[in-house]
Amino acid sequence: MKGVDAFTQNQRYLDLMQVCASDFAAYSGNEDKAYPKAVLLERAKQVCLQLDADMLADETSDDPDLLAEQRHELRSMAVARALRSERWAEEGVG
After folding, report:
1. What angle do CA 84, 35, 86 make, to 5 degrees?
2. Domain contains 22
3. pTM over 0.85, yes/no
4. Does 45 map to a domain?
5. Residue 4 is assigned to a structural domain of this protein
6. Exposed, middle or buried: residue 40 (CB in 10 Å: 0-12, 13-18, 19+)?
7. What three-state secondary structure class fits 14?
């Protein structure tokens, strides 16, 4: 998501989701199925956007590099927490 700047360029993110869905549908047996990771990716995006809003309200540093590093680390942890059970359910571990 960071690579396509999904947090500020929503259309770019939507275009990527369309590409992913089209690629998924290209495989035999998937033609009429929804792209299963779309819901997870959207949940991850929403968690990150909420985190960004929370961080904006709490920013205490004037160092943009430090803030970017903190944001990246917090986003990673938030996404991991938000998607943990779904990932394990997919793998049958959960």
Report:
1. 15
2. yes
3. no
4. yes
5. no
6. middle
7. helix
